[in-house]
Amino acid sequence: MIIAIDGEASTGKSTQAKKIAKRLNINYRDSGAYYRAITLYLIRNQINPKETLGQDLFSKIDISQKFESDSFSIFLNGEDVTSKIRGHKVSVNVSEYAKKPEIRNFVYSLLRKSSKLNSIVVDGREIGTVVFPDADYKFFLYAIPEIRAQRRHKEINDETVKIESIEREIKERDDIDSTREIAPLKKAEDAYGIDVSYLAIDQVFEEILEKITF
Ligand code: DC
Questions:
Q1: Parallel, antiparallel, or unpaired for β 192-195 and 137-142?
Q2: Among residues of the chain, what percentage have pLDDT more than 90?
């Protein structure tokens, strides 16, 4: 079984995907975390997003994800980079790298490989449209930017960071993600859309669970 959770930035996709993985006892893959880990690798190696990336480069990048007892971790060539990939530098650069077809194809192959043997729930932007168009269940979460910025602000928990600048960043990211030529952020026609602006985490979760039948 494959469950796709797509949607806008900061709508709680990964929170929902993890809850589903736990409840249904299936694997979880965070597609954004793959893009972030690759971005971290490329920044560290001073490879700029304008360069064309050869296959030899990808053979040097080994990424694995683990979701165990409620805790998600991601490893880049054996190093635990779970918190490093959430840093500011990666966050502001990831959309530029995620536009590159070489990088996207690499991530798609990792995700498809993960789905071969086990049921999975994957969160992302184009999981239901491009990566797994035949997914058993597809959801698309969206919310007004102001509310997403408030949520991110709370998550960052740093009073020196202004909500307005987070909102600006979110809108910029949405803009890059939804206007790019390859795999833009958009709801699959057969995805079930949920406006999460005024819903609590558990309300969204219940709505999703109601749709999933065995
Ligand atoms: O979900 P996130 O914020 O961790 O994603 C980081 C970036 O990666 C986001 O700006 C867009 C990109 N991304 C993507 O292009 N496709 C995905 N399936 C997931 C993320």
A1: parallel
A2: 79
